[in-house]
């Protein structure tokens, strides 16, 4: 299905021509019929000589209704530029032609209407004038057909030219992400809310759950129509009416975008290549206030120029449009900008980054990235999307006053679905581009994430350096807390998990629990260390540890308290013994040597299996310890649910070992 859009000055006969060609009057408002002038968008359809059916969007030509014209012209395949032969090119002819050029409409036909009112010589002069106006635009070389809606002269030639123009226009791709810029909202008795628009980028089917953006309202497609015929599936490029269930007319407006639920996100900042038309009365300056038109939406914005102070008429430059309200767009979408007062089209361009971050002006790295995105090669664009964007508000600054892009954090990295949303490319193109980048070692895959090779190398070096520094500072600790490591590198939790797994698989680091008795192997309580790292004691520390362990062996169930151990060995050495499992923390104050601990658990469990219950006194005698130590041991076994307290007795708990642990002392 294809869409033809009219363009041209007011009263040059656009609506009359559409009526004659289709048998449908596109002027549907009473005010339009009373004034004899199109005010809002009109719609019709026709069957061309080839048998193909095409939609027609008829737009108003009066300068006061340009914003209505812009709401309907964005999704057209072929332009039907209407110029009255008795008047020739007029102001809105030029403005509409400039808009078509900015939107890169490359296929079109010019209808010289009212040819019955002029002689052949005048008609040829007007034809030459139109040809000159087309020369610097995307419609250069478009056929110019003289015709009359009154006498019907030239209409067969006009239909044949439209047929040929549709043949020459690129077909609409099915990218699997349908979106419908809403240009009309109304209700039908017995059916409810209906929206219309030109469907882009994919098929829409009855029964699908959709989301109306940017407001985020969910609805269901109750029914679809094209040219007043019910259909089950609407193809990309078709004028489509969508009957929605679960949403009221008051909750929708022109400019909204209907898309599959969860597939698009609104934005308030766009990086764009901005062109100023040669006919603009003045340059567009940095911080200018303009109205942005994209799809069927109109949003006020402030223009931040990124590579200059102003863009002169006929020139282009890099800019960021900082929107006053959310907009739903994709990379590659075209837009128009107009001065709000006096209302005038001054330019337009293409969106290269739909969810932009604030940039420093004249930053070479930012400008280079935008140039790369604008070129559009899938692999290079995907690689650019994987790279980090340095935020000037939070980045470090070197002593020379330059932005420090080598600080930890900001390594980029995205999942394939994020790249797809960011670039607006088909998923198959994104997957192919990422696979090729990995194959030629320009990118690295870490689980579900992809990172540019140089950023991965920087991340790997920073990750290892952090562990080396930690081991140097704390040589007796088993490792660095994983959460501290993640925070220092400024990695998102999911990305951090994939990075840890990839580095561990490569032998660059190892992950362990916070201690042998914790049972923690991953997550917040886990520790990270270099794969080859083991805590090392100095000779004097080894002698002190040996002496302390001898005390533990002499009195296994009446050992030194933790305070005594730390006074003799220091907190770092004590912590290392706990990390290694040489000592076991029973309570904050009581430690046991590992062999004695294992033997105590084995004896208690065996006795409970034999007797059923134990008192503190029973267990004290069993281990040959004091009440103070036995209470501490029972507190520990209760907490671990090896035992369960019942009054003054202990019974087996649900976590008691199935078979008693073998004493190791």
Low-pLDDT parts are 390-408, 514-524
Radius of gyration from the CA trace? 37 Å
CATH superfamily of the domain at 2-168, please?
P-loop containing nucleotide triphosphate hydrolases
CATH topology of the domain at 2-168: Rossmann fold
Strand content: 25-35%
What's the main sheet like?
A: 8 strands, antiparallel
By CATH, the architecture of the domain at 2-168 is named 3-Layer(aba) Sandwich
Tell me the name of the CATH class of the domain at 2-168.
Answer: Alpha Beta
Helical amount: 25-40%
Can you give a write-up of this model?
- This protein is an alpha+beta fold.
- Among the domains are: 2-168, 3-Layer(aba) Sandwich (Rossmann fold); 179-260, Elongation Factor Tu (Ef-tu), domain 3 (Beta Barrel); 267-366, Translation factors (Elongation Factor Tu (Ef-tu), domain 3, Beta Barrel); 552-565 and 583-652, Winged helix-like DNA-binding domain superfamily/Winged helix DNA-binding domain (Arc Repressor Mutant, subunit A, Orthogonal Bundle).
- It has 19 helices and 37 strands.
- Helix 4 (91-102) links the parallel strand 4 (78-84) and strand 5 (108-113).
